[in-house]
């Protein structure tokens, strides 16, 4: 009896997986070439799941917040009206959906599912869990620019996703505070440093900052890397084609050390909502985060006062050419039913009309269709669309551009850095990141 | 024995044995097997070495045999492992040295029938009835840096002077141990109260007649008489320290929070989630299993030896 309860923290979780694992081991022993078998049978599977073009489909959704859930419902209703395909939405809590995605895709997934663009899409596409949708893109390709196209593709070059919206990671501030104190928008690092010093002298927290959730500080890492080393370097680092011990990474952290004294203290124990509140209460001067968080968290009364600017330039070679603008969209799980109907739905969703419809109640994201300016856009959204379009390239986000295990490792190392931003810490986290990257990327 | 008896015995032994084998031994052995593989949970595990399986950087290989490489990585490369072992040890030490004695003290005081003992008993037992998830949330509100109770009351909620209870890796483990001890003390108190009630009152009277003080009576007479309960409390304490998980998981929101590494959390972080390193997580599970087996074996050895000596 005691051994049962002593193991219980770890085993119930591993038990389930272990059972599956044993089944897997048994299956593998019986059919040593099951990998090949799986490959050859997969094309048959997708044909078998084709179904009729008007058959009912189910839609697995992680849009679990009330506002996005309502927006999503109006999108699917419009899709049904347009395509005559009945859509049933199965909403699952955001985090649960993400944590179970691997089992979900291998079990009995819905015909369509919500997901994220970039590496997180490629990861599952490469494991043969998604249906390629090149035929859908033959029809909707004209609606999107090249950046949107490339983030919808797997590493095999086929399309696996239709994106819906994205949002920029930029520096937010209150217009009233800038006007009252006579601050101007910084475009260079020197201006930026002068501004944070002035804010500190004025008794403001220059940059609201929170990192308890693990991911927010990756945004700062991304933007500094994009500004200092450029997009190609950043993507190569994310894919571990550049080692973490590279001097470029040290440069990012050294730049960060300069601004660290002006970022909100005790970030590791604070959730980002508390930082956003500090900005909204005008106790903080600025906050660098996604509009999907900051703008979405602002009350309607204060939203008109909110404005933003792109992160200031550091290396003149790259100026303000890049930013993180994570995109969300939809994919077709390989095991989903009625795939022909699912593709018809995606064809509709990949149109400016559908995005406009979705964005009626969403005041922080922007549609991805080229040149879309939905009538419901507020100033933040209008500006977001312009700033994203200005970029020569957009990255997705630290935890969307790399292997999730690596993102987790990096998040933790960044917390160490926040705790003690010294040259010695930088050297040790670079080494640890590289050691872990080697095992995670298997190189 | 009649036939009926034999059938009854077979059923009464067979069903628990079957359940035990299915839900404990089989998964435990499967976990050990999986700890020698590399597997993301997608597809099946192939009986081929990983080194001979084709790989694309960044895209997981299909499940394959990995030898002792996982164990090598756990002990040399995985940055969470040694801090996790250390934190589990600290957790155990605090429980044994502070939380459990505190619970025993509460029990002894309440058992003496002080005024309002029922009220104290209810208050101290309340945390035990709350789920650990709820306890985590309650204390989150207390520890929150800008808006939390403690920092607000002591005036340390300004950006220049705030105390980061849950984020500072030198503080957060202790902050969580306060939460855990708050609950553990109540738990031990209830166990111990039940034990104290069962101690024959004539023993105390005899000690009193012999002129023993209250402290002497407890340590020389009552405590030794409660040996079975003491062992149960010790086992519960060890188990609760090894299974420490919920509070950390709730506090760090499933994300790694520096300073709060625990073995159980490390297992979960690798096995549950968007991408899974089941082989690696199983390896951590096996390490935790081996550590758990030490106190369990000692306990079982003691328990069986005692039973035999009674015969």
Structural write-up:
The complex is a heterodimer of chains A (443) and B (311). In chain A, 52% of the residues lie in helices and 12% in strands. In chain A, α4 packs antiparallel against α17 (352-358) and α12 (216-238) runs antiparallel to α13 (247-259). Chain A folds into two domains: 48-167 and 326-395, D-Maltodextrin-Binding Protein, domain 2, CATH 3.40.190; 169-324 and 403-441, D-Maltodextrin-Binding Protein, domain 2. The longest helix of chain A is centred in the middle third of the chain and has 23 residues, at 216-238. With 443 residues, chain A is α/β, with parallel strands linked by helices. In chain A, the strands form three sheets. Chain A has a six-stranded mixed β-sheet. A four-stranded mixed β-sheet of chain A has the order 6-7-5-8. Chain A contains 21 helices and twelve strands. Chain B is mainly alpha-helical. Chain B folds into two domains: 3-72, no CATH class; 81-310, MetI-like (MetI-like fold). Chain B is built from 13 helices and three strands, in the order αβββαααααααααααα. Chain B has a three-stranded mixed β-sheet. Chain B is flat. The interface between A and B is large, with 81 and 89 residues.
Strand order, main sheet of chain B: write it out: 1-3-2
Q: What class do helices, strands and sheet pairing of chain A give?
A: alpha/beta
What is the overall pLDDT average of chain A? 86
Radius of gyration of chain B: 25 Å
Number of helical segments with 4 or more residues of chain B: 13
- Helix/strand/pairing category of chain B: mainly alpha
In CATH, the architecture of the largest domain in chain A is 3-Layer(aba) Sandwich
Give unreliable regions of chain A as ranges.
1-48
Distance between the termini of chain A: 44 Å
If helices are DSSP runs of H or I spanning 4 or more residues, what is the number of helices of chain A? 21
Low-confidence segments of chain B, given as residue ranges, are none
Give the CA-based shape of chain A.
Answer: globular
Number of domains of chain A: 2
